[in-house]
Amino acid sequence: MTNTQYIPIDYYIWLAAILFTIGILGVLYRRNAIVIFMCIELMLNAVNILMVAFSSYRQDAAGQVFVFFIMAVAAAEVAVGLAILVMMYRNTQSTDINILNRIKW
Amino acid sequence: MVSIDLLVSLVPLFPLLGFVYVAFNVKRLNHVVTSVVACGSILFSFLTSIYIFAFLLQLPAENRTITIELFDWIKTGNFSATLSFLIDPLSSVFLLIITGVGFFIHVYSTGYMHDDEGYNRFFSYLNLFVFFMLLLVMGANYLVMFIGWEGVGLCSYLLIGFWFKNQDYNKAANKAFIMNRIGDLGMLIGMILIFVHAGSIQYLEVFSKATSIDTGTLTLITILLFVGAMGKSAQIPLYTWLPDAMAGPTPVSALIHAATMVTAGVYMIARNNLLYALSPASLELVMIVGLATALFAATIAIAQNDIKKVLAYSTVSQLGLMFLALGLGSFTSGVFHVATHAFFKALLFLGAGSVIHALSGEQDIRKMGGLKKYLPVTYLTFVAGVLAISGIPPFAGFFSKDEILAKAFEHNAIVWFLAVIASLMTSFYMFRLFFLTFHGKTRASDHAMQHIHESPRSITVPLMVLAVLSVIGGFMGIPEVLGGSHALNNFLSPVFAASQLHVEAHHLSHTTEYILMGGVVAFTLVMIGLAYSRYVSQGHVPAAEGETLTSAHRLVYNKYYVDELYQAIIVNPLYKISSALDAVIEKLGIDKLVNGVGEIVVFVSREARLLQQGSIGYYIFVMVFGVIALLVLNFIK
User: Fold this and answer.
1) What is each CA distance from B177 to A105, B228, B244, in whole angstroms?
2) How many domains does chain A have?
3) A105 contacts B610? CB cut-off 8 A
C-alpha cells in the first residue's frame, strides 16, 4: 500500500480531464505551431497521469508499461515534429499555421 | 529387373522430356542435336512399348489388364481423380501404332523439314503431340484421357498453323480448333453425366456399374461422347476441318491427321465399348454417321486436285468405315482398320510429301504426271500404299476392310452395299491420284523439273518401312475363312468380352464370305481398270481452274458447298448476332455502365475536393469534432 491510495482516484481523473481539455482547446484556438505542439504533449501527458493513477490504484503494472511506450513514441514524435517546424520556419519565416493554407487542391 | 509400373510411366515420359529439352533450347540447339533428341525419345518409347506388349503377351489372357496409379490428383467430396494408367491389349496396340509410326514419321521429318527455319520448334511440337497422344490412350480414367484429348487438339492447332506467316493457314488452324471445341463440349458433358450416374470416372469402376444405369441415360451419355468423337475424328457434321488441316507440314498430316490423332475417337468408343453395346440406339447412330461419312467424303475425294486434299478426304472416308465397324458392334475390326490405316495412310501422306518435296512445293496433281522415272523409291512405296488402301489382297487394307464389309453384310445387305460403294470409290480416286501423279506425261513446270530429285534417305527409309508394314500389316488379322486365326482378335477379345454379350452376333457361311470377298476384289479391279483407261490410256487431265464444269462435277468439286453452307447458316448469323449484341449490349449497356461509374467518381471528387481548403486550424477542428462525435456516439449506444 502506497500513500497515493489516500488521495482519492477522482482527483486524478479531474486533473487529467482538465489537462486534456486545456490541450484540446489550445490546439483548437492557438495558431502558433509550437504552442499547438505543446498542447498535444499536454494531452498525451494527461493520459499518462490517468494511466499511472489507475495502474497504482489497481496494483497492475501494465498501465505503467504503457506509459513508457507513450513516452518513447512521444519523444520520436517530438523529433519529427520539431524538424518539420524548423523547415516550416525556414520557408515561411513564421510559425503561424494559417500561413500554410496553400496545402490544398 | 525393372518393374512394369516404371516402364509404363516411362513411355509418355520420354517424349515429354524430349519436348521440354527442345522447347527450352529452341534458339540454341543445332539440327543434329534436335533430331537425335526428338527421334531418340520416340524410339525409346517405341522400344518400351514393344517390351510392354511382349510382357502382356506372356501373361494369361484374362490377366492382361494392368492399372498403374502414379498419384492422387484431385480429391474433393466424393469426387476423386488419380493420375493413373491403364495398360490392356487395346491400349498396348495403340501404344505400338503411335510410337512406331510416330518414330518413322519423326525420322522422315528430319529430311522433310531440313531447310525450315522452325526446325526445332517443329520437333518440340511433334514430341509434345506424341506425349499427349500417349496420355490419351494410356489414361485409366476419363479425365486423363480428356487431358490427352485436349492436348492433341492443341498440338494439332499449333502444327496446322506451323507456318503462321500465312494467314490462310492460321485460319485453317482456328477452324480445326473451334470445330474440335464443339465436339469437346459434348464430350465434357458426357463425362460429367458419367460421373453423376456412375459415381466415378475410373474406367473399370464405370464399366462395372454400367449395367445398372438405365438405357436412356446411357444412350444420352454415349451420344454425347460420340459428339466428341465426331469432332476429333472428323465425322459428319464436324469433318470440314480435316481437309483444311492439310495446311500443316506433310509429316504432320501423316502423323496427326491420318495415323493417330483422328483415330482417337475410334479408340474412345472402343474403350467405352460396354457403354455403347448397352445402348443399341447409339450404336445405330455411330453406324449411320460412319457410313454416311465414308460415302460422302469418298465422293468429294474423286473431284479434288490437291494431292493432300484427296488424301484428307480419303482419311475422312476411312475413318467413316472405322466408325461403321464400331457401330456394327465389331470393335476389333474398327481397331484393326485403325492399325492398317495408320500404316498405309501414313505411307501415302509421306509419299505425297516426298513428291511435293521433289517438285519444290507443288501440290496440284494436274501439274504432276510421269514422275515414275524420277522418283523410283517413292513410286514403288506409293504403289504398296495405294494397293493397300484399295483392298487388294494380300495388302494390309484388304484384311481389315474385308472384315468390316463382312460384318456389314451380316448386319444388313443395304449397309454392306453402301459400304462397298464407298470402298470402290476409294480405289477409284486413289488410282486416279496415283496415275495422275506418276504416270502419263509430265505436266510439271520447268522450274520444278529443274530441281527434281529423289528424296534423301531420311525420307525414303521410313517410306520403305511403312511400305513393308502396308504389305504385311494385315497378317495380324487373317480371318478364319482364309485359314488364319486372327491373332489381333484373340489378343483384343478380353477387352471387348463384356460388350459382346450384348451385341447380337451372326455368322456367315464360308461360301458367302468367299463370294463377298471375291466380288469386292473383282469390282475393285474393275475400278482400277476404269481409272487406268481414263487417266492413262486416254490421258485425261482434270479441268484447269476457270474451265466450266458440269453441274454434278462442280457440286462435288466444291465439296457440296458444305463450307459455304456452314458459313451461311452458322458463322454469318453468329457474326450478325455478335455485331447486334455489340451495338446494343456492349456499347449501350456495358460501356455506359462502366463509363458512368467513372464519371460519377470524377464528379464527386470535383465537388469533394473543395473541403480541402488548406486551413490547418479547420482540419484540426474537424478532427477533434469528429473524435468527440465518435465518443458521444459510442456513449449513447
Assistant:
1) 55, 13, 11
2) 1
3) yes
pLDDT value of residue A1: 47
CA distance A30 to chain B (A): 8
B605 to chain A: closest CA residue: A105
pLDDT digits (tens, 9 = 90+) for B106-118: 999 998 888 888 8
pTM for the whole structure: 0.80
For A98, name the nearest residue in chain B, comparing CA atoms only: B615
* Contact present, B353 and B463 (Cβ < 8 Å): no
Structural domain spans, chain B: 286-543, 562-636
pLDDT per position as a tens digit, A12-66: 999 999 999 999 899 888 888 899 889 999 999 999 999 999 998 888 899 999 9
- Residue A102 maps to a domain: no
What ipTM goes with this model?
Answer: 0.76
CB B467 within 8 Å of CB B378:
no
Q: Is A94 exposed, middle or buried (0-12, 13-18, 19+ CB in 10 A)?
A: middle
pLDDT in tens, B321-374: 999 999 998 898 999 999 999 999 999 999 999 998 888 888 888 888 888 888
Residue A105 lies in a domain: no
Q: How far apart are CA B38 and CA B32, in angstroms?
A: 10
- Residue carrying the nine cell digits 476411312: B318
Please say whether the beta carbons of B444 and B372 come within 8 A.
no
